[in-house]
Every structure is written in structure tokens, then in C-alpha cells.
Structure to design on (107 residues):
């Protein structure tokens, strides 16, 4: 079975699939003729219907992902600034309330 996987991988690595050679090599590897033909047909269908990503596809998606990350970073920074300002306001309000309470009690 391992030799079958190596054989199929080797055949899929090429752009064109030589079905006659693949079927013959499967038969030479001990696969029955009907099974070798069926495997060859399935592999041929997979190769014909494959839509592999190109370098341009990857570059396009990489750019999209980077843009999404930049947008998320901007949103995160806005939230962090908002939280920092809120926390500062809470500290100032608490300090003011403490100072007012302290000044009232010292009179």
C-alpha cells in the first residue's frame, strides 16, 4: 500500500497525468487490472478537477489577510485607548471623591 501512495504522489506531481503508465505501474505493483484501471480513473478525475492555488492567488490572499490584521489592530488600539481613558476617569473621580470626603471630615 505504501508503494501505491508513493506512485500516486509521483504521478500527481507532474502537470499531465499519463494514465497508461500509471495503470501499468499499478498492475506491475500487484494491483489487479480492474482495480488499477479504477484507481487510474479516480486519480485522473481528481487531477482534472483540481484547482491548485497559484502564486498570484497566495499573494492576493496574503494581502487581504494583512489588510484585515491592520484593521483589527486599529480597532484594538481604539479600544485600548478608550479603556485607558475610562480607567483614568475612574481614578480621577475616585480621587476627587476621596479628597472631597477628606476635606469635609477635616472641617
Amino acid at each position: 500500500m505504501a508503494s501505491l501512495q508513493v506512485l500516486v504522489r509521483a504521478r500527481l506531481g507532474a502537470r499531465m497525468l499519463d494514465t497508461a503508465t500509471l495503470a501499468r505501474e499499478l498492475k506491475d505493483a500487484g494491483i489487479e487490472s480492474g482495480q488499477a484501471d479504477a484507481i487510474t480513473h479516480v486519480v485522473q478525475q481528481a487531477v482534472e478537477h483540481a484547482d491548485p492555488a497559484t502564486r498570484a492567488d497566495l499573494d492576493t490572499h496574503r494581502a487581504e489577510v494583512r489588510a484585515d490584521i491592520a484593521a483589527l489592530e486599529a480597532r484594538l488600539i481604539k479600544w485600548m485607548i478608550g479603556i485607558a481613558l475610562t480607567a483614568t476617569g475612574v481614578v480621577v473621580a475616585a480621587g476627587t471623591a476621596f479628597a472631597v470626603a477628606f476635606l469635609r471630615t477635616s472641617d
